[in-house]
Amino acid sequence: MREKTQANSAGPGDGLIRAGAVVFFIGAVATLVTVAPLFLGAKPFPTYMFGLSMLMAVGFLVAGAGVLRSVAAGRRQARDAGR
After folding, report:
1. Phi, psi (5° rounding) for residue 17?
2. How far apart are CA 1 and CA 16, in angstroms?
3. Whole-prediction pTM
4. Domain residues of the chain, as ranges?
5. Which key words tag this protein in UniProt (predicted)?
6. What is the largest CA-CA distance in the chain?
7. Which portions of the chain are predicted below pLDDT 50?
């Protein structure tokens, strides 16, 4: 039996996973920039930089939502194939 989807096609949730990874990476860079002055003995960054550090959690949640959407689509596809 041939598979209807190609190996390189994007499935449901793939966009959310990619977007979550990008947001997580931006948050990780902001965290490194925010923590660096503590080790270097420099003047701390403004408070909004600590807010940007929260993007790590936001990116993790967005990617998690993408994974859940992908799992739900896979289960739906398996259920439909069983009928």
Report:
1. -65, -45
2. 30
3. 0.77
4. 46-82
5. Membrane, Transmembrane, Transmembrane helix
6. 65
7. 1
Q: Residue 7 is which amino acid? A: A
| CB within 8 Å of 76: residues ≥ 6 apart | none
Q: In terms of Cα–Cα distance, which of 71, 74, 64 is closest to 21?
A: 64
Asked if 23 and 59 touch (Cβ cutoff 8 Å), the reply is yes
Both tokens assigned to 11:
């499935």
* Closest by CA position to 62, among listed 12, 30, 19: 19
Contact residues for 55 (Cβ-Cβ < 8 A; gap 6+): 23, 24, 26, 27, 30
Distance CA 1, CA 74 (A): 18
Q: Tell me, what's the pLDDT at 7?
A: 65
